[in-house]
Amino acid sequence: MTDRIQSFEEYQQEYDLSIRKPEEFWADKAKKFTWHKEWDKVLEWNFQEPKVEWFKGAKLNIVENCLDRHLATRGDKRALIWEPNDPNGQAKTYTYKQLHKEVCRMANVLTNNGVQKGDRVCIYMPMIPELAFAVLACARVGAIHSVVFGGFSSNAIADRINDAGCSFVITSDGMYRGAKELSVKETVDEALESCSTVDKVLVVQYTHCKVKMEEGRDIWYHEALRSAGKESELQIMDAEDMLFILYTSGSTGKPKGVVHTCGGYMVYAEYTFRNVFQNKDSEVYWCTADIGWITGHSYILYGPLLAGATTVMFEGVPTWPDAGRFWQIVEKHKINIFYTAPTAIRALMTHNIDYVKKHDLSSLKVLGSVGEPINEEAWHWYRNNVGRKDLPIVDTWWQTETGGIMISPLAGLTPLKPSFATYPLPGVQPVLLDGDGNEIKENGVEGYLAIKFPWPGMIRTTYGDHERCRRTYFGVYKGYYFTGDGARRDEKGMYRVIGRVDDVINVSGHRFGTAEIENAIDEHPQVVESAVVGFPHEIKGQGIYAYVICAEGCEDEDKLRQEIHEEVIKQIGKVARPDKIQVVDDLPKTRSGKIMRRILRKVAEGETSSLGDTSTLLNPEVVESIIQGRRV
Ligand code: WTA
To answer: Per-residue b/e over 487-509, b at no fewer than 16 CB within 10 Å?
Structure first.
């Protein structure tokens, strides 16, 4: 048995085995790790409560498996390469030994400052090495990390801190982003004005900008390090203890805290990383995501480190100082495996091809895509210009809730089809359901994508509200985990994920609930009601289109738009700013008062000739005026 699946036939055999004997299959994959006690049972589950337990009774520490386990065999191998925002800045490299040392030191700082097993720690930081140390240090001491993406506003941070009851925050003074220098600590300070659970804030000095330090609460990391020892003890965790919380948007209410646990997540992140990317020991792997999202958790940190790979972390943006930045980094660090999002590809496609051509990309062996459907045009551009016309592209479909990749080609083994994520990974049992929740068995069909059997990396609960987890994911179609996505299965059984079928918008790979954005817009004193829908956007995949009703009409629409932008930035963050805002007199509603989003979506898409039946509307006359006022 080799370490990786080596052929498509082997994939098929492994897949069959994983379906026939899932427990045996995953127990075999789990063997390689360091466990302090073996499991009593591989899997116990029901999708009604839901309750899913993998490797029940086993004891482990995931960071021991990421770092300590490799020290004897690859201690001097590069674990982490960090590339700064500024191309003239100094890249940093950490071997497994060095990364282990940094993580142990930060772990000691946490324990010295009272962090204990089970405590929730909010991490709000730019993409600097200390962010990686922070995540791993939490897991080492058994604290539950909740990383909040650096683009979120103080209100969004406060919501997440309060929901999880975090007692500790790790942040930095400031950050760089392209040509800009931004404050970070200041945003945390604002957030903490409405949080009562936080005792301590650990601040990494990075940009040396001026910050206010609150006595008794705020601690400089570099000062705390002086009294932190080098050796750190591992907290031995139960396989089903919480590892982290990561907030994500759904179609209703505030973002929910998706919970992943230690044992199953570990086994799944490692197995999927190794097989999908076909990573070899000498290779350098770069995922361009932010650690604030699940892709960064599973495929910048945990997956690659568990597999003993060399992983690259990039602080900057793809288009600064110019649109060649990604390719310059590929050349500089001789990247072999490159994993990015369709939105980045579409943005780079709009620039002169010389930005790609002037760099030596010959080190590349595998390309990947994640976060949203990749359109055929982007797929071909990526393959032809970056992939020398023949590199495999792994179009990986998965979600925050799935913990790891679910449907994807295995690089170089699975036949490819542009815009298709192709086949499920071993252990994954996808189905397509019709509107009544019946499985559609044949091929060449479309349906709602659901999963009918547990996999080790799956969501266990939503923090503090298990019923919400049940209702959202297991209550829609009885007996299935429902993904919220629609998908097509072709004649050969290959899957193409088309997009969300619920009220979730995917903007440049960032998920937002329409309700979440509406709530932010409604905070504007002049706005009476709003409705948000997605529309096709050339670069972002989907853009945000907002319809708003104003109290007493609106005299200066531009001013109102500006203020709504500011409101959304304040409530959520820049990433959720509407692309288009249309002031309307009324919204199309059904007789029961529900907004007819279908019509609003069509108008936003510009498909005004096929609005369908509007006769059931309470106020059909508003439709015409909405069409007239459409923002193009
Ligand atoms: C979408 C990101 C098509 C999908 C890992 C899913 C995709 C949502 C793909 C999850 C893909 C992700 N093809 N659609 N390869 N990958 N999606 O939680 O709609 O940020 O439900 O996880 O992104 O987004 P999330």
So the answer is: bbbeeeebbbbebbbbbbbbbbb
